Amino acid sequence: MKAVHWLFALLALNAAWATDLFVLGHGFENLGAHGALLTALGRLTGLYGALALVLQLVLISRLPWLETRLGMDRLTAWHRWSGFWVLWLVIAHVVFITLGYAGQDGSGVVSELGTLVFDTEDVLKATVATLLLIAVAVTSARRARRRMRYESWHFVHLYAYLAVVLGFLHQVSIGQDFTQAPIGRFYWWTLYGVALGLVFVSRAGLPLWRNFRHRLRVESVVRESDDVVTIWIGGRDLDRLPARAGQFFLWRFGNRWWEAHPYSLSAMPDGNHLRITVKALGDGSAWLQRIRPGTRVLAEGPYGAFTADRRTRKRVLLIAGGVGVTPIRALLEEFAYARDDIAVIYRASTPRDAVLAHELDSLARWCGARLHVVVGRSTAVGRYGPMMGPGHLAAMVRDVRRRDVYVCGPPGMTEAVLQTLHELRVPESQCHSERFAFAA
Questions:
Q1: FAD-binding FR-type domain: which residues (predicted)?
Q2: Cβ partners under 8 Å of residue 56, min gap 6
């Protein structure tokens, strides 16, 4: 049974349990009373909202068992999608409860809302939680996200944890599943406890333990071009770190420990060093161009399912675009040791942008891989049609349908290549891609 099936099975099972506890708690009794149906719907949407919030915690907990099977990009995309469900369910909870109580009391909706917020125990906490969730949702919208610095967005997103705590306190104090049902209390305490425990262990406990154990430091810095550096990182017992070619870490350097940036490994881990290659694309990556040997490093990970484990065939095609060459270069090294049938395509706008092309060439010569460095504008049209289009790709790698294809590059390029593979009728199970960043 695949991890995704386990995840959805657990979600469906918990939804059934929550509904069953609601029914056993007489949630649908006395529906003939004025406003009772709306109140019941308010309670039910509140429970489903709490369940969706727990799902969000599990998705972003970075649980190694789940993350290495599904990929962090997929998990964070689901986290983002479920976040909007949380918001709509919470809003529905507020609307239905307010309308239901207003109907029961015979009062106006606005006055009833004021009474609930300011005169009812712990509802003010839930109101603050709702406002925090709205703020997180607004800043997570694509248009707003593009306008914000990562650090600012991340700071706002941390308030989601406060919203979880406040919402749970509200549920504990006045939720009928807590105040009137011992089984319900046990269920929800266990559910929240497990979810928060996963977050604490995976996002705090495990990274702290690994960093204490491995004591990572920058050992050397190699300049690849005017805006690209390769950083070699050493430490203790790195052979015990479960890192694979194609994975990435969240890196924190020196006195800027609060800034975490996802960079993939640009070389296969050898048990003695970890290597990343960084291009100056923002404030953090620009600062790393001047980092010095001896700087203390904190690493959280490894993350990602973009590894050789996803391969289904002996033949492999690796496609890299821009700085996306870093995990591709690491994968080429791992596949090279296995002496697999390998083809590599490296896409760059200009020869200057073809970072690590010389290393790809050396590895390709060593293992007998076929390397194609494709340089030019994305709109260029050649003998076989548009660059990286179906005709062009098939001309470079004629047996592409019989290969596993790994693609890493800018989002636009990655999507275009995946579309090309679809047009070439390469089975979806043979196409592997992953964004080396967090959607959350």
A1: 211-309
A2: 79, 82, 83, 86, 160
Same structural domain for residues 95 and 239? Answer: no
| Number of domains, the chain | 3
Q: What is the C-alpha separation between 206 and 199, in angstroms, rounded?
A: 10
Q: Mark whether 244 and 281 lie in a shared domain.
A: yes
Asked whether residue 83 carries a pLDDT value surpassing 90, the answer given is: no
CATH number at residue 389: 3.40.50.80
Gap between the Cα atoms of 66 and 198, Å rounded:
11
Do both 43 and 169 map to the same domain? yes
Evaluated on CA atoms 147, 148, 153, 154, the torsion sign reads positive
Assign 67 a pLDDT band (cuts: 50, 70, 90).
Answer: confident
Categorize the per-residue pLDDT at 227 as very low, low, confident or very high, splitting at 50, 70 and 90.
Answer: confident
Last residue of a domain, one of 303, 327, 347: 303
- φ/ψ (deg, to 5) at 387: -60, 130
pLDDT at 330 over 80: yes
Q: Does 440 reside within a domain? A: no
Amino acid at 25: G
Instruction: Give, in order, the Cα–Cα distances in Å from 233 to each of 214, 215, 221, 267, 389.
Output: 11, 10, 9, 11, 38
Distance in angstroms (rounded) separating the CA atoms of residues 38 and 133 = 23
Answer whether 381's CB lies under 8 Å from 387's CB. Answer: yes
Partner residues linked to 218 by β-bridges: 233
Whether the pLDDT of residue 26 is over 70: the answer is no
In a domain, 364, yes or no: yes
**pLDDT over 70 (residue 437):** no
| Distance separating alpha carbons of residues 283 and 292, to the nearest angstrom | 17
Q: What is the value of pTM for the model shown?
A: 0.81
Quick check: bond before 302 cis, omega within 30? yes
Alpha carbon distance 147, 141 (integer Å): 10
Beta bridge partners of 404: 316
Is residue 127 assigned to a domain?
A: yes
Residues 295 and 348 in one domain: no
> What is the extent of the structural domain holding 225?
215-303
From CA 130, how far away is CA 136, in angstroms rounded? 10
Q: What value does the mean pLDDT of the chain take?
A: 87
Q: How far apart are CA 233 and CA 137, in angstroms?
A: 37
Inside any domain, residue 351: yes
